Amino acid sequence: RKNGIFEERYLPRLKPTRGAHALLERMIADGLTLVVATSAGADEMKALLRQAGVDDLIDAATSSGDVENSKPDPDVIGAAIKKSKLKADELIMLGDTPYDIEAAGKAGVPTIVVRCGGWWDDDALEGAMAIFDDPTDLLEHWPIVALSDSVVLC
Questions:
Q1: 98-107 and 75-84 are packed helices; what angle lies between their axes, rounded to 10 degrees?
Q2: Does the N-terminal or the C-terminal CB of the chain have fewer CB atoms within 10 Å?
């Protein structure tokens, strides 16, 4: 029932996060591979990516259906690592919650945080290699770090 309510009432009104599409396009232009690692179900993930207008930019994805445990457990990050065909230390997680940082950290993946997930307390984001307000802020500081061959998105 929850999924039905979400799809009917809320999904059609969701707007992409400021700068998300432009940031992903820049990452692709720079040769990065984009892999989604989400605790959402596969159908919800596809609908959210479509609503954000970025579904055509994603190379691979993992969802809650691919793993036993959700974030902050690292299972979904591990599944994304396998799909990327890279090692954990060759990836960077772009996350928007402390759960992303914790899950990525347990999997050995460094994290860049965007606060647009609603977490404004930097203490809750401890462990991130960098913190930005939203994708536009990150894009304005691009490239902030020497990036890897692939980025795992949450």
A1: 60
A2: N
